[in-house]
Design a protein that fits this description.
about 150 residues; mainly alpha; 8 helices
Length: about 150
């Protein structure tokens, strides 16, 4: 018994296959982006959001005539370095990220502020403990500040 083979002409991928391929490319990208955005909005301190620092708080704190002449990034740096005396670097890094998220103009200064926090954390906590608080705020500037102070 002979079997006949039906040869069909292939016209290319059908609409379902094209949609599937598109989703296979787009969905992972969307998941990564939404995960990244979710991580930046997490309150890493564990305390209520009412105690979080914003760049507006920093500007309001510098209402004196001497502080009013200083740039917002300098006020933020000073505020966070002072806060580092009382709170762990994880809390302070969260406040830095929230300030940058609230006022994107501070993003250009985020790296230098995070490095300064890293150097100060080494003085307060020691290199090993300070490094344990490192996380990707302003890329890895906090960790590089820790390493610079340690070397």
């Amino acid at each position: 018994m002979k079997h006949s083979t039906n040869q069909q002409t292939r016209r290319g991928p059908g609409p379902a296959r094209r949609i599937g391929r598109t989703l296979a490319l787009v969905l992972p990208v969307m998941m990564v982006l939404s995960g990244t955005l979710a991580v930046t909005r997490v309150n890493w301190t564990g305390s209520p959001s009412s105690s979080t620092l914003t760049a507006t708080d920093v500007t309001a704190a510098g209402a004196s005539s001497r502080a009013a002449a200083r740039a917002p990034q300098d006020l933020l740096r000073e505020q966070l370095l002072t806060e580092l005396q009382d709170k762990n670097p994880g809390v302070v890094l969260t406040h830095l990220q929230e300030a940058v998220n609230g006022h994107p103009s501070l993003a250009t200064h985020c790296t230098s502020i995070a490095r300064a926090l890293g150097r100060a954390a080494v003085r307060i906590y020691g290199a090993t403990r300070a490094q344990s608080y490192a996380r990707p705020v302003c890329d890895t500037a906090f960790a590089s500040g820790v390493m610079a102070a340690h070397s």
